[in-house]
Amino acid sequence: MRDNRPPLLLGAATTSLLILPLVSAHHLPLLDAPGHEAGLAVLRNLIFGSGVSPFYERGRLFIPDLAFDGIGLALTEVLSPETAGRVFAGVTLALTLSGLVVLNRAVTGRWSRVPLAAALLLYNLIFIFGFFSFLFGLALVPWTLAARLRVRTTQVGRGLLLGAGLGVVLLFCHVLAFGIYATFWVGVTGAARVRGRISWLAAFAQMLELVPALGLFAAMPHGGPGGILYEGHFVPEKLVGILESLSSGSRIGDLALIAGLIALAALLRASDRVSIAKEFGSGLACLSLLYFALPLALGPGSNLDKRIPVAIALLGLACLDVRLHPTRRSRLLVWCLVAALVVKQAALSILWQSFDPRIDSLLAAVIATPPRLGRAAVGMSSRRQSTRAHLR
């Protein structure tokens, strides 16, 4: 499953399948997507227009949740807000998949096609929620880890500056994206020091590079409604949450996912060697502890814990070192994986297209709303927005 060349053609074909639902439907039927896309128009008016908005304050421009606002605002120079959302989602998917392949190259020293199996997982609960900024931040995590691994062993000072800068970038994308990177990196650093792979100085520097982002986060506005929620059936809720986090909102798509994961497990079982470096296993273990430590709700944030299992699965695939000789059985299992991905993406495309008439009807009703009634609705929406989490 590996050679000395990056799997460019296979990666391009997989990416084409990934964006199929995005280009086949007229609208993105994602929970928060309309609000995020409308926010681009509001933000553009706030910065370049009248500077007045019932939804935004200038203080909100310094929060750890700005990836979509910043990039989407640039995209609206040439695209409509809705098209900007679609392009942003497609770029995020492509960045995630390619980043996993690059991280696997940094971990194993060879190119591998195995991380492309992560395409089965990229349409998940958090994607359906439309948490654009977090998804973009998560897409940058494997790129950040790959960059840090490249300069980890011999260039302590350069690694410190690079890690600090990339940590700040991840923080402004989304605080939990930085949290995932920091947790994984702490596990990797600790395991590398225990195994004698790095010196105490290098380990200290790798921990120290997280400080600038943590300091910025401490200076950012916090608060809002909500508290810490741990339910009585906490462990069962967490176990069910793992399954929920993988759902794509399509029964056929989820069945295809299960079939693809079974084929992937059989493929790994049939391989000559499957291993993961112990230090990277420690990073995954730290992320697992983070998932079970996070409450079901934390302050103004919601669904924070549901974002962790997919991150663990993606980074786990990226850290696998698989040696597999091409045999008839392995080729059959690879084709099963491909078929599962095709079925899932086709099912999602058909499902998303089925929402288009309803969304068009809703848009027509909004356009036909009298101006005064529309302004009253905006006021009500603004009051509701004040009670929602700003770390989405």
What does this structure look like?
The chain has helices at 8-18, 20-24, 33-48, 67-75, 81-108, 125-129, 132-150, 156-173, 175-194, 200-208, 211-219, 234-246, 251-269, 278-293, 308-318, 328-367, 371-385; strands at residues 2-3, 111-112, 228-229, 273-275, 297-298, 301-302, 321-323. By secondary structure, it is mostly helical. The chain has one domain. A 3-stranded antiparallel beta sheet has the order 3-5-6, with no helix packed on it. The longest helix has 40 residues, at 328-367. The two termini are 38 Å apart.
Secondary-structure map:
Layout: E1 2-3, H1 8-18, H2 20-24, H3 33-48, H4 67-75, H5 81-108, E2 111-112, H6 125-129, H7 132-150, H8 156-173, H9 175-194, H10 200-208, H11 211-219, E3 228-229, H12 234-246, H13 251-269, E4 273-275, H14 278-293, E5 297-298, E6 301-302, H15 308-318, E7 321-323, H16 328-367, H17 371-385
Antiparallel strand pairs: 1-2, 3-5, 4-7, 5-6
Summarize the structure.
This protein has one domain. Helix content is 67%, strand content 4%.
Number of helices: 17
Largest sheet: 3 strands, antiparallel
- Termini separation comes to 38 Å
Mean pLDDT: 85
Shape by Cα distribution: globular
What value does the Rg take, in angstroms?
Answer: 22 Å
- Beta-strand content estimate: under 5%
Going by helix content, strand content and strand pairing, the class is mainly alpha
Strand order of the largest sheet: 3-5-6
- Spans of at least 5 consecutive residues whose pLDDT stays below 50 are 374-392
Number of strands: 7
Question: What proportion of the residues is helical, as a percent range?
Answer: 55-70%
* Number of domain modules: 1
What pattern of helices and strands is seen along the backbone? EHHHHHEHHHHHHEHHEHEEHEHH
